[in-house]
Amino acid sequence: MKNNAPKKIVEKTQKTALVLGAGGFIGHHLVNFLKARGYWVRGVDIKYPEYSRITADDFVKGDLREQSLCEKIFDQKFDEVYQLAADMGGAGYIFSGDHDADVMHNSATINLNAAHYGQKAGIKKIFFSSSACIYPAHNQTDPNNPNCAEHTAHPANPDSEYGWEKLFSEHLYLSFHRNYGMDVRIARFHNIFGPEGTYKGGREKAPAAMCRKVIEAKDNGTIEMWGDGEQTRSFLYIDECLEGVRRLMDSKTFRGPVNIGSDEMVSINELANMAMRVEGKKLKVKHLPGPLGVRGRNSDNKLIKEKLGWAPSTKLEDGIKKTYVWIKEEMKNSK
């Protein structure tokens, strides 16, 4: 249902979930994930999902920065709340500096509202999606040896204002846990990608951008890339992300913060080559100045293995193939 007035759950025997940011890439996949497991789900976002229909039992289109909306949507004691709403995008959006004020104000306001009205409503458990961007920039200058272990978050020195806001909000939710007993779970996502993610317009992330560029290029043509391409990252396929979130939510004692990401680190040049291999294209790469973020970043998965007995294992190239095929089909259908 698409409306601006929340509706009550019908079957009270079902587990209930509230997904904030349900119109976004991860949020939309999360709604589908929860519905497949029998949940009654309310989704809330300022926009509808971009590429497929809404599957939530109730979808409220509205601005989570508004206190009046947040008071309305927290009208039930949901079993689980998932806070994924944020003002964010890829490197071109986050690291240019042009959107810093909006990123900090919009996301912080959403989190302040979610924590406050969630606590007033007596919600049972809340998940907050933090980011690898909270890690100190000085620990990520070597592309081959970045240090993103959870305990290194302090002394703080995030690489962007987006990272500073995420770190602030981690402390916000943990404060609500200490002072009000709110059952909080926090995960630091590392570059989640997959089908139905934004692939154009300036907010797309590297895997989607590379797939789109390769698809658009003619054989023996050229694609553009910011930097020298030797900066490193790890990228996590969406299905693995959702499994990690579920395991964290199911934990009896561990609340995080914990990395949810792949530890398969690649250079951006290698990422582009993976996209080229899907169709066997041979392309030249033109390196240009542009916003890059840190020189190297990789998910440290020691803690998630220790606390949850699990870590992501899907190969990056397998996820790239699935994403590439989806983007190619979407581009064909949108012509």
Report on this model:
- With 335 residues, the chain is an alpha/beta fold.
- It has 2 domains: 2-192 and 235-260, NAD(P)-binding Rossmann-like Domain (Rossmann fold), CATH 3.40.50; 198-233 and 265-295 and 315-333, Alpha-Beta Complex (UDP-galactose 4-epimerase, domain 1), CATH 3.90.25.10.
- Helices cover 38% and strands 16% of the residues.
- The protein contains 10 helices and 14 strands.
- It has helices at residues 25-36, 67-73, 91-94, 100-121, 161-180, 206-216, 238-250, 268-279, 302-308, 316-333; strands at residues 2-3, 16-20, 40-45, 58-61, 80-83, 126-131, 184-189, 192-193, 222-226, 232-233, 236-237, 258-260, 266-267, 284-288.
- The strands form 4 sheets. Strands 1-4-3-2-5-6-7-12 form an 8-stranded parallel sheet, sandwiched between helices.
- Helix 1 links the parallel strand 2 (16-20) and strand 3.
- Helix 6 crosses helix 10 (316-333).
- The mean pLDDT is 93.
Task: Provide a short characterization of the protein structure.
The chain is α/β, with parallel strands linked by helices. 38% of the residues lie in helices and 16% in strands. The radius of gyration is 20 Å and the shape is globular.
